[in-house]
Amino acid sequence: MHILLAISRGIDRINDQFGVAANWCVLLSALISCAESLLGFWWSSTKWITATYPSLAWVERLFQPMFNFYQHNSVAMIDTQLYMFAGMVMLGAAYTMKVNEHVRVDLFYGMASERVRIWIDILGTLFFMFPMCFVLIYFTWGWFVQSWASGEVSADVGSLVRWPLRLMLPVGFTLVVLQGISELIKRYEALRTHRKLKYEYETPLQ
């Protein structure tokens, strides 16, 4: 049992790090979105000013290198935000499972005893979560390989390759499977020793 608990702790540490990465994806996505919006507004405003007041044409020339960067990279900036969105969801899913913060929609779980909840978690993980994750890993890995081999990009000029987005899917579901193994070990230990689980589900405030 000590070996299994060590494996569980190792998986938790791995997904803790991916949770940190998901948090960074949130921050980077917000910064890139803000920069893209500000540059777009700055560019369009400068165009309007120089068209209305030709004597201020020097303003556009002053910031032309920045505007050139925006024109050539605006689509790539939007694609980068998509990468960050995929990272925050798929890399953060396993960590969210670890801290038991996924939204639950149930009729009986909240009213059940702790031991019954543990059995619901075990059976749900084995017969619902694992099979679905394995199916999704199988199909999304094929999508990633196909995208990688073809160098898939979107139809927009200047867009980035799509395979990093595709890769996030099998990686994310694999991390969820690993965290599911960790949670099974914890619940088996809780059943065996009557130990109270560290994280308990709390009904959200309505």
Please provide a written account of the structure:
The chain is an all-alpha fold and 206 residues long. The protein has one domain (2-193). The protein has six helices and no strands. It has helices at 2-52, 57-62, 64-90, 93-98, 114-150, 163-193. α1 (2-52) packs antiparallel against α3, α1 (2-52) packs antiparallel against α6 (163-193) and α5 packs antiparallel against α6. The two termini are 40 Å apart. The model has no long low-confidence stretch (mean pLDDT 87).
Helix content: over 70%
Helix segment tally: 6
Query: If you average the pLDDT, what whole number results?
Result: 87
Overall number of strands: 0
Largest sheet: none
> How does the overall form come out from the CA principal axes?
elongated
Low-confidence stretches: none
Distance between the termini: 40 Å
Strand content: under 5%
| Structural class by secondary-structure content | mainly alpha
Work out the count of structural domains. 1
Mind telling me the C-alpha Rg?
A: 24 Å
Order of helices and strands: HHHHHH
What are the defining features of this structure?
206 residues; mainly alpha; 77% helix; 0% strand
A few lines on this structure:
The protein is mostly helical.
How do the helices and strands line up, and which of them pair or pack?
Blueprint: H1 2-52, H2 57-62, H3 64-90, H4 93-98, H5 114-150, H6 163-193
Helix pairs in contact: 1-3, 1-6, 3-6, 5-6
